[in-house]
Amino acid sequence: MIDDSKENAQGADISPVTPTEGAPGDTCVSGAELPTYAPMSAAIIEEPVKTPAKVRITLIDDEPSVLFALKLLLEALGFAITDFSDPEAALTHLGTPNVADVCLCDLRMPKRNGLQVLEAAKGIDSGLPFILMSAHASDSELQKARTLGADAVLTKPFTPDDLQAALAAVRRKTPALPNP
After folding, report:
1. Is CATH 3.40.50.2300 the right assignment for the domain spanning 56-173?
2. Among residues 26, 65, 80, 162, which one has the fewest Cβ atoms lying within 10 Å of its Cβ?
């Protein structure tokens, strides 16, 4: 006896079943009986496709070209990005529970600098990993960043490898983060 049973990707049995009555349409043009298949269960149809969780990065930079380039790079590396050119809008976003796994923020911005964003973000979620970016950070700004809880400071211009190294360091400190 030949086993015609098969399993779909979810492991449900989709074996052919014998038609019950010879209803119209149960045969093909040549008159041969066509197999019918057991319907898939509603649970399988309604179950969402599970995709691996991505690290969600909130990206903040007032410079549109930098924001765009970093977003493209991070998305290509497998991260989910929510970007903001306005620090106030970013902080409003961060005020929503569980919207970010990491914050990547420019230091020098006109409305609110990165140290102010860092302090406010840590006030919202003290465990949020935070990486500052700057081309012109002073020693006192770097010290204040460490005091406020920055996990890393990237000096602009930085390479994709530098960015990946900073994110990897954050991942080592925060093992609960999903893999990108």
Report:
1. yes
2. 65
